[in-house]
Design goal:
By secondary structure, the chain is mainly beta. It folds into five domains: 144 residues, no CATH class; 121 residues, Jelly Rolls (Sandwich), CATH 2.60.120; 88 residues, Immunoglobulins (Immunoglobulin-like); 89 residues, Sandwich (Immunoglobulin-like); 39 residues, no CATH class. The strands form eight sheets. Strands 1, 2, 5, 7, 15, 17 and 18 form a seven-stranded mixed sheet that branches. Strands 27-33-32-29-30 form a five-stranded mixed sheet. A four-stranded antiparallel sheet has the order 4-3-6-16, with no helix packed on it.
Length: 513
């Protein structure tokens, strides 16, 4: 920490000489050792010690003021800086301020690269280190600072683009560059600013020779000075306003009513203000296949609001599918009826208002005792049914794990005839009231997202032989032929499905019989 006081008025030579004599006795201890201070400039004098109350800090967790020193880390929920320096008797502070000093991150000069003919960086995709650019990579950018980038060039027009280290280096676009159009203005120098809140500390610069002329470009990258708070006789600043954990060089400066200015520098101060939420006490319960997920959140930042995203993995944690997002409560019901019985991975992600997050993974198992599921329906082939017979009911058997409750619909000739619920694994459909003819019957059965179908053709015939059918065709040769084909189809279906008729029993009935 360097402290100095500057006088606004130039004292006479005699007064300076007297002051130096006095200082020779006041800044040295009686045992001959020198106090731990540094010279400042010729218009001031070295302060023998820091005034009380110059810079202290408290937090929501500890309200007792503690002195701030260089190269220190201040940790707490809402670290608040206080400056109320003690001044000589009879003097008062007229103004005081806290300032974050600027930092130089990069300063260099580069040869410009003349781009290939017809290369258009404003409309084409390109990769990092594309040969049409001069590339500069800067590491160690502190989160929370405002970067100022200045490019001064010797050709007619040079443009500058920038990306942060978290962007895909294989697909750069002009529209994705974090300077936007600030440094493509045709001014010299080109100047742009970036608020650095990216989750990395790497800045990638692409310098483009727009005028396609040989030359050089001088690049300077600094963080700008920030006056964070000012006041009349004292100031306080909640460093939560940095919006991120941050390391800075801080200056405290104030002026007295006699025109004296005091400046103190505190180097390398780290503010650890922001904490990720913690997730604990995860409980997974169920009522049959309806799962309830519950969890608790703890955050050192007491006043934070949180949201939760829930994900499920069906492949042992290889991939996850989201089931709910931005939930502002700490429990969630999820109906897993019909899901496969197996082990599942539950991923809980909790985020706070500034984007800090944490996650936890828990596993649970669905079993048939709590989650009976539908696996399919046995196929029924085409069949023949005698009109008026007792055997006029279609019976489907479901393929299932345990005994689930399912929904189903039955269609006849594409018309929905019935909708119901099945809980015993068997679905029946009575055709006793259907007149003779050919019908297409379709069953659709479902449970949650599982849907299965079966379709069959049913021929309903009169008991005995369908004389009316032949008569309806007449005794023409065509009528007889159609009748024979149709009757053979009936007989074949009977033989295959019901085993009642044999091919030799079929005969063409004459009208006179």
């Amino acid at each position: 920490m360097i402290g100095k006081v500057l006088s606004l008025k130039k004292p006479p030579i005699l007064a300076i000489s007297l002051l130096l004599v006095i200082m020779s006795f006041t800044i040295s201890s009686t045992d001959g050792t020198t106090l731990n201070n540094k010279d400042v400039d010729i218009h001031g004098f070295v302060c023998s010690n820091m005034p009380a109350g110059l810079l202290e800090w408290t937090s929501n967790e500890d309200s007792t003021p503690k002195s701030v020193s260089e190269n220190s880390t201040l940790v707490g929920d809402h670290v608040i800086l206080h400056s109320s320096p003690e001044v000589p008797v009879g003097r008062t502070i007229e103004s005081i301020q806290l300032t974050v000093d600027n930092t130089t991150y990069h300063n260099s000069t580069h040869d410009l690269i003349i781009p290939q003919l017809n290369f258009d960086p404003f409309n084409e995709e390109f990769e990092i280190f594309n040969s049409n650019f001069q590339w500069v990579i800067v590491h160690g950018i502190e989160s929370g600072c405002t970067l100022e980038i200045t490019a001064t060039f010797t050709n007619e027009d040079t443009d500058v683009m920038a990306w942060h280290g978290g962007q895909n280096p294989n697909v750069y676009r002009y529209d994705d560059n974090i300077l936007s159009g600030q440094m493509a203005s045709q001014y010299n120098p080109e100047v742009g600013q970036i608020e650095w809140f990216y989750p990395n500390q790497t800045l990638i610069i692409g310098i483009f020779d727009y005028s396609e002329q040989a030359g050089t470009c001088r690049l300077e990258i600094t963080s700008i000075e920030e006056q964070i708070v000012s006041g009349i006789d004292s100031v306080s600043y909640d460093t939560y306003g940095f919006q991120t954990n941050r390391t800075v060089n801080l200056t405290v400066s104030y002026s007295l009513d006699n025109g004296s200015d005091y400046v103190y520098n505190f180097r390398n101060l780290t503010f650890d203000n922001f904490f990720s939420p913690e997730i604990y006490n995860v409980v997974i319960s169920h009522d049959q296949a309806v799962l309830t997920f519950a969890w608790q959140i703890e955050d050192r930042n007491l006043l934070e609001n949180h949201t939760t995203d829930l994900y499920l993995s069906f492949d042992n944690g290889q991939t996850y599918s989201i089931i709910t997002a931005r939930l502002n409560q700490t429990s969630y019901e999820f109906d897993m009826t019909g899901f496969s019985n197996r082990v599942y991975y539950l991923l809980i992600v909790v985020s706070d208002e500034i984007g800090l997050s944490n996650s936890i993974i828990e596993t649970f198992t669905l079993t048939s005792s709590t989650n009976p599921i539908l696996l399919g329906v046995e196929d029924l082939g085409d069949m023949v049914i005698e009109y008026g017979s007792e055997n006029s009911t279609i019976v489907w058997h479901l393929v299932q794990d345990d005994n689930p409750t399912v929904n189903y619909r039955i269609y006849v000739n594409d018309i929905e005839m019935y909708e119901g619920i099945c809980s015993d694994g068997t679905i029946e459909f009575d055709l006793s009231e259907f007149l003779p003819g050919e019908y297409t019957i379709e069953l659709e059965v479902w449970q949650a997202g599982r849907i299965y179908n079966d379709a069959l053709v049913v021929l309903i015939i009169d008991s005995g032989f369908p004389v009316e059918l032949i008569a309806s065709f007449g005794l023409t040769l065509l009528g007889v032929a159609i009748s024979i084909v149709f009757l053979y189809k009936i007989a074949n279906a009977r033989r295959n499905q019901m085993g009642k008729w044999k091919p030799e029993e079929i005969r063409v009935i004459d009208e006179d019989e």
